[in-house]
Amino acid sequence: MRHLLATEGLGREQATAILDTADELKQTLLGREVRKLPTLRGRTVITMFYENSTRTRVSFEIAGKWMSADVVNVSASGSSVNKGESLRDTALTLAAAGADCVIVRHPASGAAHRLAGWLADAGTHVVNAGDGMHEHPTQALLDAATLRERLGPLDGRRIAIVGDVLHSRVARSNVHLLATLGAEVVLVAPPTLVPTGVGAWPVTVSHELDAELPAVDAVMMLRVQAERMTGGFFPSAREYSIAYGLNAARQRLLPEHAVVLHPGPMLRGMEIASAVADSPASAITEQVRNGVHVRMAVLYHLLAAAEEEAA
Hints:
The structure is a single chain. Helix 1 (about 10-30) packs across helix 11 (about 285-305) and helix 2 packs across helix 11. The model has no long low-confidence stretch (mean pLDDT about 90). The protein has helices at about 10-30, 55-65, 85-95, 110-120, 135-150, 170-180, 210, 235-245, 250, 275, 285-305, 305-310, and strands at about 45-50, 70-75, 100-105, 125-130, 160, 185-190, 205, 220, 260. The protein is an alpha/beta fold and about 300 residues long. Pfam families: OTCace, OTCace_N. It catalyses: carbamoyl phosphate + L-aspartate = N-carbamoyl-L-aspartate + phosphate + H(+).
């Protein structure tokens, strides 16, 4: 695998290999006092974030360090970007400095693909940690890992993705990956928050949350991304919560085995009630925990798998 830029086009075999590797790494580290593997010793991993992040950035850093890579963090506010340096020049600078892998988050859709093109001759791998409203592939992979852990194989499972689908790169990545893994995906959102062209996606669309909940195996609540909104997409936070928030009453509509997910950060009381987020059905903390192992697996497949197979 050369880069990880999107889940669209990621084959079932390759996706399953990453998820299986994450499971193996999780079991390998279970109960170890020192969570350190020598797999990526001598490799340099650079995280380059042009947007704020807690979960993704921290978990990539921990993943690299647990695999003994040298991890360097670069932020827009602390780099030459503030002096007007272009993304291309920043990328070429990092590659010239010895980066084996660049993990990038950027507000522009397609930025990770452009980066991969610029670094094609440098031998540097690129991981998309979120580009605009386009994709966030490692989030989808960790969501799938969490669902497999709770539900087993995803073939035939029905997953509801609820909320601000229009602005969500998490939703887009999950739609493609979950469909690839055999799940049935239903998008539940107000009409104003459903993307145009959704008819080409492997999904069904609903605007009635209560009608969908009794028939799903998992419900993935999305963050309302106010920072990407330029108009009135719903009347008020209160009305959004009444129609699309997952509260305790709605949770009782779910099957007993159903799993609740949220990519974070959560808007408690609007998107999801605290009683639901902190309930046994919630796998939100597990998503964060699995995120470290999934990102370890991604780094392994990018930087070490081919060499180990050759050896």
